[in-house]
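Subject: HTH cro/C1-type domain-containing protein

B.,
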Amino acid sequence: MLKLTLQKLATESGVSASHLGRVEKGERSLSVNVLRKIIKPLKFSEDELLALFGYPPLLKSSGRLTPSDVQKAIEEFTKMRNSIDQLLNIFKLKG
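Prediction pasted inline below.
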């Protein structure tokens, strides 16, 4: 299990501890930008995070995105954000 304090996550990600605390409490939504900043300190790749929520990897083997890939990525990130918001609400209710 990864032992990472909120302060250490804030330091390593560049996202303020107060913002992360508000996200944790369900007072703020987790943006894709913030999510991208925290996945590395949490030891996740973007593809692993997408897989965690049941989404396919975004990049093709060429490493390039087509316009339809970008549109699909926007849709998938929107779904992912909604899933994360739902998880945060569940944690908030249990906490």
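The chain has one domain: 6-94.

T.
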